[in-house]
Amino acid sequence: MSAAFNFNAATLTRTITVSLFTGLLASTAQASISDNEIRIGYLDDMSGPYSDLAGPGGLEAMRMAIEDVGGKIGQHKIELFSADHKNNADLGANISRQWIDQRNVDLIAGLNSSAVAIAVTRLVEEKHRFAIVSTAAAATLTNEYCTPNHLHYVYDTYSVSNGAAKAIVASGGDTWYMLSADYAFGHAMDAQVSKAVVESGGTIIGKANHPFQTTDFSSYILQAQASGAKIIGLASAGSDLVNAISTAKQFGLMESGQTLASLMVFITDIKAIGLPTAQGTQFVSGWYWDMNDESRAWANRYFERTQRMPTMVQAGMYSSTFQYLKAVEATGSDEPQVVREYMMKTPINDMFTKNGRVRVDGRMVHDMYLAQVKTPEESKGEWDLFKILGTIPADEAFLPLSQSKCKLVNADQKVAGASRP
Amino acid sequence: MNAQSLLAIAQQRGILEQRQLNMLYITLIALGLIAPWIAYPVFLMKLLCFGLFACSFNLLLGYTGLLSFGHAAFLAAGGYSTGYLLSQHPGIGPELAIIGGTAAAALVGALFGALAIRRQGIYFAMITLALAQLLYFLFLKAPFTGGEDGLHGFSRGKLLGFIDLTDNHAMYYFVLAITMLGFALVKRVVYSPFGQILQAIRENEDRATSLGYNVSRYKWLAFVISSGVAGLAGSTKAVVFQLATLSDAHWHMSGEVVLMTLLGGVGPLLGPFVGAGIVVSLQHLLAQSPLGTWGTPILGCIFVLCVLCFRSGVVGSIKLLVKKNFK
After folding, report:
1. What is the pLDDT of residues A60-82, one digit of tens each?
2. Which residue stretches of A78-237 are H helix?
3. Is there a domain that residue B242 lies in?
4. Which of the pair, B5 or A171, is modelled with greater confidence?
5. Could you tell me which CDD domains the record lists for this protein (chain B) (predicted)?
6. Counting CB atoms within 10 angstroms of each CB, which of A181, B140, B289, B324 has the fewest?
7. Using the beta-carbon criterion (under 8 Å), do B243 and A94 form an inter-chain contact?
8. pLDDT of the residue at A375
9. Domain span at residue B242?
10. ipTM of the assembly?
């Protein structure tokens, strides 16, 4: 026994740990990487309606991030595994629980659908693990449902709706007609946009709700057209959005001088609708592949592997994983609080954003962009779909801390947040 | 052979079968007790909850001949009530919350049943589906259910005030006890005179009426018991996963329980458990495999195969095999 101890202690630095005993010794000697491995679980919709915007592409982006840090940190291997939660909170929570209990996962990433994301972030808080939400949009994830154990990285309902409304009103679109999907997501977006439009001096002259998964949008589009509003705001997603935009095109909404402002758009949606139909639509995006040299270089690498251009979510998945691994490397620990603190004090500068920072409520705040879908004449390639009209600065893009209901935000931070524009 | 000796043989055979059945149950209980040391307890708990849920459905379809296509409503009624109780009044403990959830589901069942049993066959199924959809929208819109996000973040609490259920093994044995209790209740109902009348109704409703039984009342009572057991399963599941969401109330869930019961075998009491085991394990395994995208088609193929080749489900077919070869 003592011989084994001496042998292990002596060869600690150069041998691969085999026995449990050596394993324990090694982990105390070299900071605290649990099990000497960094284990990342990617949990998202891999086969359902949202698999295009994150799905298998997001997994590939994470693989790239792991390769870019060299596949390991020090001598600690990085292990990546994935599962399909099918947008079902039960299944998502069950898989996460199993990953935590059986595979001792350190980071859970991806997390589409707010119900799944909330369930999983609650679980990681209880079990002291870490999660980075990239796919789900609900702003509540860093508001009433914030936890000290997760970050919300790419975008949220507040940043895409509030930002779009303010920027569009500022550029002259001051009369709005809102067409929203009749469920929580649509209502939340509608309320947010209406507030932002009124606050920045515009008026809402009409509203309609359409049922989830409507195929015939003609009556709604006719109402919107008859309202005479300059901007028709669309608070819908997925197939609803595609149908609404197609119908608007058929009724010549854009030709009559009205502009569609779609609040939740991914490059894959526009690719599916096609430029002739979608042209002119304005929206807010967290990232676009053709934004700058760095984003282009990364997007081209991604394209070589998947034959598709990345969505903002997939880019965020790469960036968040890369930054997480950098934080683990710098702190020598995969302890959630240690990593989170490091990420909070280190600005994020990479292909995804410049000067992004993680706030106390777990929100990664970064510049958002007002974008417009190009016309077929402007487009020079299959994936040349957007042009960036303007930047929404990080401080304005996200819900200010002064309005936060997050339990991690104390009174001082609220005041500090309010004094900052 | 006279009638008496025939009776004696029949009795002997009955006793033999009873003995074999007891052996089977004892083996299963033993297996249930050691299972969490072999397999992952949370997965086993999910299996047990869905098994109990399918068992409640089987009581209606297998023994009363009622195809309820809205059984998810009771699972969700139990789950949401328990979730609500635990998040608003964490002090009441899991056992009271589960009892509350079960009672709420039984109450919903009493209401739904009173309306639905007035019609038969496809109309009955459609009414249960419609009522379940109504409840789905209630859960979607009501202020206390958290809408699409569902209810989250309540703790499992302490059983009887001192057994900490955050430990997966403790939770497992609690769930096992509940499942056995629910199963025992269903078994007791099926083999009671009341259960015999239910089966008589299933075989020939008019004849049961002509014998003087108030058929509607029997059907209604069976419906209430079944929804109560489904609510028990839903409540337990809510405590295990610490969440209650719309996926429990969605009609997909009503379809899934039909699938579980048909796969396992309509009728035999253990059938639904086997069916739930197959469906839940497949979903679980496929979610984490590269074949994930093919989950639904694979399940569909298994279902088609089952319907074509083993009409009486897995347990039903095994029963037939045993009967043919060993007797």
Report:
1. 999 999 999 999 888 899 999 99
2. 89-102, 114-127, 157-170, 184-199, 218-227
3. yes
4. A171
5. TM_PBP1_LivM_like
6. B324
7. no
8. 92
9. 39-326
10. 0.79
